[in-house]
Design a protein that fits this description.
0% strand, flat, 3 helices, 128 residues, mainly alpha
């Protein structure tokens, strides 16, 4: 009888994996909001039609879903959520924008350090 390993090996998550997961989460959240935008009014229309706590709860869920869908299209429902940065990332570009930004920053760091090294080499050659 063998025992399972006590400590599972840690997994290495790369920036691409994190960006992919973030984009997938944003798509799932957007699709769930679209579904709730349709389902909440349908549930409210079913008999018995009463105005009670559950009706107000469905109304709040519907408003939150509406805000989620509109925020993906750069619109906001006023007074429902605290303000976000002026340039939110759309659903389809949520993961890729982060990855491209990280690559650009890395290239800039490498480019600036490489360019400084080339300038120093030129200065040494001209002095000799």
């Amino acid at each position: 009888m063998s025992l399972p390993p006590s400590n599972p090996s840690p997994t290495n998550t790369t920036n691409a994996d994190l960006a992919r997961r973030h984009a997938q989460y944003a798509r799932i959240r957007y699709n769930a909001s679209l579904g709730l935008l349709l389902a909440c009014p349908l549930v409210l229309a079913l008999p018995p039609r009463k105005l009670n706590v559950y009706s107000f709860g469905l109304g709040l869920v519907w408003l939150y879903s509406l805000d989620e869908v509109l925020s993906q299209n750069r619109h906001r429902v006023p007074y429902f959520r605290p303000p976000q940065p002026a340039d939110p990332v759309p659903v389809e570009a949520a993961g890729m924008g982060v990855l491209q930004q990280l690559k650009r920053e890395e290239d800039e760091r490498r480019g600036s350090s490489d360019a400084e090294g080339v300038r120093e080499d030129k200065g040494k050659k001209e002095c000799s």
